Amino acid sequence: MGNVIEIRNIIRDFQLGQETVHVLKGINLDIKTGEYVAIMGPSGSGKSTLMNLLGCLDTPTSGSYILNGKDVSQMSDDDLADIRNTEIGFVFQTFNLLPRTTALDNVALPMVYAGKSKAQRIERATEVLKNVGLADRMDHKPNQLSGGQRQRVALGRALVNNPSIILADEPTGNLDSKTGDEIMKLFDEIHQAGNTVIMVTHEEEIASNAKRIIRLRDGLVESDTFS
Ligand code: ADP
Ligand code: MG
């Protein structure tokens, strides 16, 4: 299979007052379609900065990012928004659901942006919520759901448009270990179904679910190992 992600010499600097902070210092990475990758590394090593770039929530200071054959490193904000909606599913540590909106409507939202009809949205969001084990929670709002259930909704939202890559930044970081294990089982299923999954975690046990572990240190890839 081909590379879904090719990044070349990605640099990301931030300006803090007069000072330039060098966060990513030249990252090179190829990820093939269907891979299951864990990204590890100490706090502050640049994991979230890299994920935000991969998720087109941010653009690099320099370097190129080819996603599914398209160079997304120089795109306009509007084009990047389209890419985020159609090519990328992003799961956050803090779930980031709309608080006043039902599970069904949270999951269906990316399909609104993708221009799907209401009937298509309801059908697909219902199917996805069943797949993440929430068939009986579709009309619940986030504050009526447990943390694990909220993260399932977030996973459903990430999957709903059949994106090219699923990105997850510490998806079990706000969950107890049993709930976290259940979420990890779902990620395994998502990978088994053929999706490309890239997950940040600082727990070795969680990373061991992945087939490849990339370790960052101080803005560079320190090691990249396959199991
Ligand atoms: P990790 O996720 O590995 O803990 P991050 O990617 O969040 O690390 O952050 C890496 C470094 O980049 C940290 O030192 C952080 O303070 C800095 N950083 C991240 N985002 C910004 C920003 N918007 N402005 C300034 N510094 C930032
Ligand atoms: Mg982080």
TrEMBL record:
What range(s) does the ABC transporter domain occupy?
Answer: 5-227
What's the protein name?
A: ABC transporter ATP-binding protein
Q: Which family does it belong to?
A: Belongs to the ABC transporter superfamily. Macrolide exporter (TC 3.A.1.122) family.
**Gene3D superfamilies associated with the record:** P-loop containing nucleotide triphosphate hydrolases (3.40.50.300)
Give GO cellular component annotations, separated by semicolons: membrane protein complex
Keyword Transport carried by entry = yes
Instruction: List, alphabetically, the Pfam families matched.
Output: ABC_tran (PF00005)
Species, as recorded: Subsaximicrobium wynnwilliamsii
Q: Which GO terms describe its molecular function?
A: ATP binding; ATP hydrolysis activity; transmembrane transporter activity
**Tagged with keyword Transport:** yes
Highest taxon of source? Bacteria
Report keywords, A-Z.
Answer: ATP-binding, Nucleotide-binding, Translocase, Transport
Q: Which PROSITE patterns match?
A: ABC_TRANSPORTER_1, ABC_TRANSPORTER_2
